[in-house]
Amino acid sequence: MNEKDILSMSEKSNNSKPFGVMALILGLASIALALIKCYGIFSFIPGILGVINGLIGLKHAKKENNPLGFFKVSIAIAIIGIGMGVSWAFYFVNIMNDGNDAKIKSDKGYQNSQVHVKSEPAKPIVNKPATDNKLDKQLKNYETLINKYISNSKKAKLGDVSALTECTSISVEASAISEELIKNASAFTNKQVKKFEELQKKYNAAVQTSEK
């Protein structure tokens, strides 16, 4: 084997490294951006680019028989950045919805004040509690997501990148349902309170296990 062959092999073995480094940089940038209020919603952009670079690097590394750990870590960091960006998106959507609801109530109150009718005692405005059936359905959906998270986290530990991505998506969806359930906690029955506490413990244990 001559010197040219050795140099050629060296260059081929390093084809994957730049993609892994770029994926790591973009993933860290995504997380850093997510920590900045008002700009965190844009963190999914470098996160997505990081995942793409990581997957390309992972593909090259497999062909070159290089270690895959660095690329998997870079992809995972980028996915975390995407998840944080999605969380910011949910946060801003909720704020906008709350603002619109308040404006609608204010407009209705003003219109009612302009109509001269027989005065009646004012009725306090209370939020309609969710029905038991709706809460049971939400708890069932929450339990299904937790079971999916546990299943995918086991696959992710075995090196399944798609399962790792699925875990992030499930985590965001589960957090949204959990927040909705907490808002309606006052309407819980004793049985529903016990069920929700059990699911929270199960989910927290699964997250801790997946992070080890």
What can you tell me about this protein's structure?
This protein is mainly α and 212 residues long. 79% of the residues lie in helices and 0% in strands. It folds into 2 domains: 107 residues, no CATH class; 87 residues. The radius of gyration is 25 Å and the shape is flat. The two termini are 45 Å apart.
Architecture blueprint of SSEs:
Elements (H helix, E strand, L loop, with lengths): L2 H11 L3 H18 L9 H21 L4 H46 L17 H26 L3 H23 L6 H22 L1
Helix pairs in contact: 2-3, 2-4, 3-4, 4-6, 5-6, 5-7
Mean pLDDT metric = 77
SS strand fraction:
under 5%
SSE order in H/E notation? HHHHHHH
Please count the helical segments.
7
Major sheet summary line? none
Helical coverage, percent range? over 70%
Number of strands: 0
* Alpha-beta classification: mainly alpha
- End-to-end separation in angstroms reads 45 Å
Task: Provide a brief overview of the structure.
The chain is mainly α and 212 residues long. The protein has helices at residues 3-13, 17-34, 44-64, 69-114, 132-157, 161-183, 190-211.
Q: Key terms for this structure?
A:
2 domains; 212 residues; 7 helices; 79% helix; flat; mainly alpha; disordered N terminus
